[in-house]
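Researcher: We're teaching a course module on how sequence relates to structure. For the next exercise, students receive a sequence and then see the predicted structure as tokens, so they can try to spot secondary structure elements on their own. Here is the exercise chain.
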Amino acid sequence: MRLNFTELPEDLTLNVRIKIPNFGIWRWRDDDFEKPLVFNFRKQKIELYLDNDYCQRKFRAVDSAKMVVKYKPVPISVVRGLFGFRKEEVKLAETIYRNYLFVFNEIDILMRTIGGATSLEIEKPQKIEEFFYNYDSNIYKKNNVNFYNSRVYWHCNGYVCQDKLFPEHADEGSFMPMVFVNKKRDQLYTGSQLITAKKWEAVAKEVQSGYKVDDSVVGLVRNLSKLKRGQNRTAAFESAVIIESVLKQYIERYLLKNGFSKNKIKKQNLKFDTMLNVFIPLIFKKDFYKIKLTSAQVDVLRDLRNKIAHGDIVSDEEVKYIDVAKGIGGAIKLVEFLNDNPAQLKYGT
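Model: And here is the predicted structure for the students to work with:
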């Protein structure tokens, strides 16, 4: 049975609380929060109001806002989407999320430039499933409205009446596109990522023993986290920079101990490729077989870094996860090998 709307409102307003880049505000009064930024995006009027926590402090940190989208006249597709017609529901959800991405990016640009907040952190917008789904709606509540990830709320001037589905008129409601609900746990909270009681005990023992992790290894492990979060390009580039720096420091120490002056070392113009594929095999000679595979894995990182730097790779999709994972693993092993074999006079003799 086809369900038709027999009456449409004069206008309709959607509003949803959104996460925005974090910045500070100074000496705002309550009425200042009623002054929105107004954007025109894809034939839509979008208003953005900063969230007011009704605190009387002069300084406040802000990281959320209310995004308001107004329609006049009201498209029938928007109404059908609000009332759960699957095709229109998906399209409306994608439109609302696209509006959010636009606003998030504009706020980031405007605060850095016109606002002068040059210390603004680099933040990423929420993914679409995070945007529409609140994993624990009981955590963030303010005036009975979810703080982040809330439903989209709507109200209109007039009534929406639909034959044979809603016998009563409706002038307000909420929108939660179930197609985007994903109750799977984040990868951080699954399997081997979980910290068991035994792991905690092992950590405690290491702390007591004065355990210290090499700074380079820390940087590489953090890049592994970026890789697992889909930042393949960044993880590859930054890991290559870290291991290149480690190689340079090690080889410079080796050359100094073997009679080279600092000026002579500078003239060597140590390049990543030369350090990894010429100096390391020459320095370790017979023991190079222990790190031959490791060096090959690191060499893949070197190649990726060059392609990224030269603009041959411009997206994460162009960088294979497995290549970066092996490269970072190889870089960690190489750092550990060099730490176990400090630079000395003519290694191995």
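Model: If you want an answer key for the exercise: The longest strand covers residues 11-26. Residues 5-180 form one domain.
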